[in-house]
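Recall the central idea of this unit: under ordinary conditions, the amino acid sequence of a chain determines the structure it adopts. In this exercise we apply that idea directly, starting from the sequence alone.
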Amino acid sequence: MLLKLKQVMRIALLSCFAFSFSNAVFAQKKQTSPLLLWDNKPAKNWMTEAYPIGNGRIGGMIFGGVNNEHIQFNDNTLWTGDENDRGTYQAFGDLFIDFDQKDQSFTGYKRELNIANSVHSISYTQKEVNFKREYFCSFPDKVMVLRLTADQKSKYSVAIRLKNAHGGKITVNGNKVEFSGKLSNGMPYQATAVVKIESGKSYPVKDEDGEKLKIDQADAITIIFTAATNYSNKREQQWKGEEPAPKIDRILKNTLPKSYANLLKSHIEDYQQLFNRLNIKLGESNVNNNSLPTYQRLINYKKTPDHDLEALIFQFGRYLLISSSRQGGLPANLQGLWNESNTPPWGSDYHSNINIQMNYWLAEPTNLSECHIPYLDYINSMREVSAIATRKQYPNTRGWTVKTENNIFGGMSFLWNTPGSAWYAQALWEHYAFTKDKAYLKNFAYPIIKEISEFWDDHLKRRPDGTLVSPLGWSPEHGPTEDGVTHDQQIVFDLFTNYIEAAEILGIDQDYKNHITDLKAHLLKPKIGKWGQLQEWETDRDDPKDQHRHISHLFGLHPGREISTIKTPELAKAAKVTLTARGDESTGWSMAWKMNFWARLQDGNHAYKILQNFITPVGGSGTDYNKGGGIYSNLFCAHPPFQIDGNFGYTAGISEMLLQSQTGELQFLPAIPDQWSAGTIQGLKARGNFEITNLQWKDGKIVKLSIKSLSGEDCIVRCPNALKKIKGITEEKSGNDFKYSFKTQVGKMYNFEG
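Accordingly, the structure predicted from this sequence is:
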C-alpha cells in the first residue's frame, strides 16, 4: 500500500523537494545509467518525435513547443462499434497552451522524458527568463498534471484551450475548460481541464477557435486534466458503467485539494514500485553518449557501440507497458493507448494473430505481473460474445474462438483466426506459471482454458489413421487455407499441454484430462522438409526464397515450448534453417519476434544482430510490409507505421537472451552475445515464481547469482559455467552446461558464485 504521510508533511513538501525525496525513499533498485529520452528541439511530428505519457487509461503525446504547447490526448475506452461491428479506437482531443510571448528566439531548450520516474519536463530560456514545465499521468489520482513555472514572477500570459477530436463544443466555466459529446454508437465522453494559477488573473475569451481560458501575468500554472467515457468491461451491464460527468467530478473532487508536490509524490511512488523492480546494465558504454540527444544516439549507434541505449530501449518497453496497461483497465492495443486518428491503421485494435500476444511477452519475465492483468481480464470479458459468434460460424462446437481483428465489446472483423483463443489461453497459463497463484488458476484461468480446449476437442478433424488436424487453417498472414497448418497444430499442442498441467495441479477433471492427453498424443506433429526447414504446411512446399514477415510456424519454438535445443534438437535445427532463410531484416515487430526466436535457439550473436537491425532510425509514417522496420527518434517501434508490439517484443527478447524457464529449468545466459562482455541485471522473474535478485556475468560466465524463491518450488538451475558447490545442492554436467537441483523454502534467498 502507498505510504500515508501526515497532512502537515504533505503541505510542507515543495515541488523541488518532491523529486529528490521520491527518488531517494521509493527507489528499490538504483538505476545504473540515465534513463532519459531527450531532444534539443520541440517535436513537430506525433508519431516520430513526440514523447508519450500515460496512466493505463488516459495518455498524452507531448510536443513541447515554446510559443505553443500541444498535448494530444486519449482515453483507451473511446471506441466506435459494438458487439457486431469492430469499429475503431478513437482520438479524444488536444490540449493547447498558447503563449503570449511571440518572440521566436529561445536558448537552452531541452525536452526530456525521464522513464525512471515517469515525468516529462521541458526547459528553456526566453528573454532572460528560465521557463520549466513538468508533466505526468497519475494512476492513483487518475489525472494528467501539467505544471508551468519560471524563475521570475508574472511571466506566464497564456491561453488554454481544448479541441474535441469529434468536433464538439468547448466551454469555459470559471477555471474549468471542457467538452463532451457522444460517438455514433451512443458512447458518451467528456474531457475536463481545471486550471490553477498563482498570482495573475484568469478570464474566459472567445474567438474563431472557440472558448478558451485566458491567463495574464501568472507566476505559475497547474493544470489538472482528466477524461472519461461510460465504458465498462462487463457485458452483463451492456458494456456501460458510470457516466463520464459524475466520474470526472468524483476524480476532481478527490484530486483538486492536493498540492502539486503531493500529486507528484503519489505518482512517482506508484510508478516506481513497478518500474524499480528491475535494473539492467549491458556491457560498457561511452559515458559521453548520455550527453547526446536520443535521436543522435540512434544515428551514431551503427558506428559507435551504445549498450546503455540498448538498455534504455529495454526499459522503455517496460515504461510503455506500465503507462498503457494497469489493473482495472483495458490492455494495450496496437499503439498502446496513444492514437491521434479516428481512422488509425488497423483500427488500432486488438489483433489476435500475434500482436496483442506480443504486447505481453515482457510482462511476467520483467516483473510487471500486475500489468498483465488487463489482458487476462479482456480475455475473460469477451467470452460470451465470442461464444455466440463461434456457434454461428462453427455449429455443434463448445467453447469459443475469435476473428483476427477485435474491439473492446467482443466485436470482431476480418478472417476467423481459429487458434486465436488458444493463443490467448497461453497468457492465462503463463500468469500462473510465473506467480504460482493456485486460487487464480482454479477460479479464473482454468475454466477459460478448459472451454477453449473443448472448442478444439470438437473442432479438430479426425483422420482414419487417428491423426488429428486443425481443419482449414491459415498460416498468418500468407499461404493456402488447408488442414494441418503447422501454426495451428503447435498452438493446439500448447493449449493441451497447459490444460493437462492445470488439471493435474488442481487435481480435478481426471477423465477429461486423460481425454485431452489422448488428443494431444494424436496431433499431427511438426515436420522437417526437403531442404532441412521446419515445414510451414503439412505439404512440403516451403520456398527457401520466402522472406515473409510472419514466421507463424515457429510458434512451438517461441512463445511455445514444443521445440527446444535441449529436448528436440532436430526440430530446433530445422527452425534455424527456416529462420536463416527468412532473413534478418523485416518490419519492426517481426524483427522483435526474430530476436526471441534466436534467443530460444541459444544463438546470442544472431539475436544481437537482429537487435542491432531493430535499432535502425527510420522516418516517415507510411505502411511498409517488408524491410522498413526500425525505430523512430522517440523510440517508438516502426512497423512502419508505429506499432507498439515491437517495443514490447524487443524487451522480451533481451529477457530471453539472459534467462529462460519454459522447459522447467532456470537457464541463465542461454543466448549471451559476445558484445555484452560484462553486465548485470536485478529483478528478472522466472517460471516457478523465482525472482532473480542479482545476476552478474563476465565473458559469458556467471560471476554472481542470487535467486529468491517466492513459492517454495523445487528449483533446477542450468548455467554455462560451474558454480561454487553449496551443501545440499546437487550438481551434474549436462552437455556443455552445469545443472544444479535443490529444494527451496518460501522467501529464502539462494546465493551462488562462479
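The domain at 36-276 is CATH 2.70.98.50 (Beta-galactosidase; Chain A, domain 5).
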